[in-house]
Amino acid sequence: MTEPVRINCACLLHRRKWTGEPEVDDIVKQVISRRWTIVRNDRPACSFTVGQWHTFTSPEFVICGLPRPESHDALRAAVIAMGHDLPALDEVDTELTSLKVKTVKVHGSWHGSPPLRVARAFYDGRLPEYRQLMWAEGAAGFPGDEGFDERLVERQPNLAVPRPDHPECAWTTPP
Ligand SMILES: [Zn+2]
User: Fold this and answer.
1) What is the pLDDT of residues 76-127, one digit of tens each?
2) Would you say residue 174 lies in a domain?
3) Å from CA of 60 to ligand 1 middle
4) What is the pLDDT of residues 37-75, one digit of tens each?
């Protein structure tokens, strides 16, 4: 394992700690062996990276509302693109995957949300920067776009919007 850059990372690995919680300790093992990993959450559906910050001091990514294979393909593509400073923040990318994707910075008010719990546990309660890969709802476009059907936020939230200002949906209501 390459020695990670030791700046500002309070993760379990840097603190050489185990939690005794299998789900969290398993993430630690995966980050040790593969440097970063992808965690899946089924209700509400989202997948996110853990270990990008720990290993590369790069932002982590999250994608919501898609099945596991599409989610994981998009996350892997985003991580590879980070090597070229892509996907660019707040820009629409049609090259990243077969989806039209816009990358936004997750507002800090979402960092305490239940789907990200294990990432929080890994980073000792304080998440590094997370970026959401928002995918376009066909012709409806992206959450937050003018004319976007707000009912579609049940499929994916817009995590760039502060949580108190976001329409109620599966992500604002704890399970
Ligand atoms: Zn770390």
Assistant:
1) 999 999 988 888 999 998 888 888 999 999 999 999 988 899 999 999 999 9
2) no
3) 13
4) 999 999 899 999 999 999 999 999 999 999 999 999 999
How far, in Å, from the CA of 11 to the mean position of ligand 1? Answer: 4
Residue 7 forms part of a structural domain: no
Sheet holding 45-50, edge to edge: 37-42, 45-50, 60-64, 130-135, 101-105, 92-93
67 CA to middle of ligand 1, Å? Answer: 29
Beta-carbon contacts of residue 109 (< 8 Å; ≥ 6 apart): 162, 163, 164
Distance 122 CA to ligand 1 centre (A): 9
Whether 65 is in a domain gets the answer yes
CA of 46 to the centre of ligand 1 (A): 23
